[in-house]
Amino acid sequence: MDVEEIRQLQPMLKAYLKEFADCFARKDTRAHMDVYVRGQLSDLDRKSVEPIAVASDMPPRTLQEFLSQHRWEEDRLRDRLHQKVAREHASGHSVGLIDETSFRKKGKKTPGVKRQYCGTIGKQDNCIVTVHLGYAVDDFHCLLDGELFLPQDWSADRARCREAGIPDEMVYRPKTEIALELYDRARANGVQFAWMTFDEWYGGKPAFLRGLRDRQQRFVGEVPKNFLGWIDLPRVTSRPYRRRRRGRRRHTPRLRADSRPPQTVEYWLKHHPRLQHQPWKKWHLRDGEKGPMVWETKHIRFFPQEDGLPTVRQHLLIARNVLDPNEVKYFLGHATAETPLMQVVLFAGG
Counting beta carbons within 10 angstroms of the beta carbon of residue 275, is it exposed (0 to 12), middle (13 to 18) or buried (19 or more)? Predict the structure, then answer.
């Protein structure tokens, strides 16, 4: 956005920010928020504190203190946003998006910074990671919530955490647990998601998938090619078993000895007759910056594996890029058997 566009939107922006005024105890603090938001919406090359403050004729130290020292009701502000989205943008076609963002950082004092996988550059580097929940319906897109991922070594060093301003109640939690907490907070404030979606890192975590199923949430998300399960339900037994009457009894329930072990989704695509003989179905998903996005798919019902046992039957969607047949993606969909395939494809394709 350029300066003129922001100037034209100023009345609406002021009205919008006014809805959050009671989240700030002091009037001057609310004014700083207006400056910071306008700076983030501007066409500045760098949108850190100093260039935003200079462009607004404000001492950089003042804006820095607003971000680092001044207190506001963060939880109330987030809840207000959730309630506004639930009130004004509810839809039977809404999609919740779980994702994470990483930022490269130098030094050792930025909260949560360490050498870890940095998605923005696709390799290990010194960075911080945050987990986010987004909301989309039609042309409306909104970031609902986000939270810092605190690595275990940071969590164990409380002195370092206090020096960085991290409260004692903030401890290490797996990213999947953070994602489910973000989801629960939004739902508690009235936000409804027709579908949830996520990338293959989250799709490869059975506990995360189970968490969404337990919440009776429909989802379709990417899973890795080595994701395990069955197309045909294996036989399970609950009968105790002890070899030659010695040793501990084997746990139950368990797969029967004559049951086929789980295989990867990549294996099933290549070797299961129902997928081998199923023709690819072509879909025009949308028009992108590089032209039409056209994929072809195969679909079958699938039993994912968790703790060695099959879970509930779900949709397995296999998608192949028409322009590059070597690009194959796998999606798991949790929805009723009667759900139209077009819906699964639509939400899988983003």
Answer: middle
